Amino acid sequence: MKLSHIEHIGIAVKSLEISIPLYEELLGLKCYAVEEVAEQKVKTAFFKIGDTKIELLESTDPEGPIGKFLEKKGEGVHHIAFATEDGLQKTLDELSGKGIQLIDKTPRKGAEGMNIAFLHPKSTGGILTELCEDPSKA
Ligand code: ZN
Predict the structure, then answer these.
(1) How much distance in Å is there from the Cα of 124 to the middle of ligand 1?
(2) Where would you tag: which of 20, 30, 82, 99 has the fewest CB atoms within 10 A of its CB?
(3) Does domain 3-133 sit in CATH 3.10.20.90?
(4) Distance from the CA of 98 to the center of ligand 1, in angstroms?
């Protein structure tokens, strides 16, 4: 397997309306995309810093994954996503073979047309870890 870089850092926020201008000031960058991922019950906002993005995540449903996270832990870092250059399914199979617990055994669609899969934080030292594959580069 081959991970190329940190694709993005996912940060749970209560309100994009409040957090987008905050991060625009903090980073000195404009938010370049806002996208709803209905399946994940989130609205996302993206900033780009070099090869890495900051993904702000606002919940659209208190029962969704970000809704539950906010309820339990409040705002803050939610996950770290690595880009794989070696095929997402292959990477998942390889990690699973090493005993890493997967949340997604097969890739699914994430924001920005990426194929994504999550690893279980129980297997990754408490950090929810996402792997991403850009299908346009696969
Ligand atoms: Zn993500």
Answers:
(1) 16
(2) 99
(3) no
(4) 23
